[in-house]
């Protein structure tokens, strides 16, 4: 079975500061890991994915995430936050089927 | 249409009534998912259909919930004897291939259910 825990339901950063959104997973098989973003009043869109190739994954809008098996983590980072990054971010995991389990989401607030 | 279509977009019902929510996935997409999104609860997995395989129903919260997918296309989520805690946005998503390889889920705009 797979599960995802996102640490921190709300994260607030200043514009230009580092963004770090935490995700830990549990999986009985090698996981496939994803980050999605949901902007206000919009649907979810894929930010990036880890599918057992490179452990450091780069996505859209300057975001990246690193798969760390020893820590069962897949944290999302961005060196410098923009106001437009304010949104809700979801980590998700899939295992040996196509079933996709999402975390509870982290709302990112960016202060000017 | 080009995207995932869900209907109704809004449904207000009385406690104890049955409701049906419909999802039209993108043509040719073999995978179809239902999720429930409540404030502070993230996206709760409900059910997953992949091609002709038996659906993964492990996320359905009670036997009041059921879903079917006819002809590998349209899906209907049925909630019997609705309760106030069923109030949420029900999201449908489809994928053209195994999501593990692409991560690409195409979401509908959701059906907002309010149980009075």
Can you give a write-up of this model?
The complex is a heterodimer of chains A (112) and B (116). Chain A is mostly beta strands. Helix content of chain A is 0%, strand content 58%. Chain A contains no helices and 11 strands. In chain A, the strands form 2 sheets. In chain A, strands 2, 4, 5, 9, 10 and 11 form a 6-stranded mixed β-sheet that branches. Chain A has a 5-stranded antiparallel β-sheet with strand order 1-3-8-7-6, with no helix packed on it. In chain A, a hairpin with a 5-residue loop joins strand 4 (32-38) and strand 5 (44-50). The mean pLDDT of chain A is 93. With 116 residues, chain B is mainly beta. Chain B has one helix at residues 99-102, and strands spanning 5-7, 10-13, 19-24, 31-38, 42-50, 65-69, 75-79, 88-95, 106-107, 111-115. In chain B, the strands form 2 sheets. In chain B, strands 2, 4, 5, 8, 9 and 10 form a 6-stranded mixed β-sheet that branches. A 4-stranded antiparallel β-sheet of chain B has the order 1-3-7-6, with no helix packed on it. Chain B is globular, with a radius of gyration of 13 Å. The model of chain B has no long low-confidence stretch (mean pLDDT 92). Chain A binds chain B through residues 6, 9, 32, 34, 36, 43-44, 46, 48-49, 51, 90, 94, 97-105, and chain B through 31, 33, 35, 40-45, 48, 50, 56, 58, 95, 98-105, 107-109.
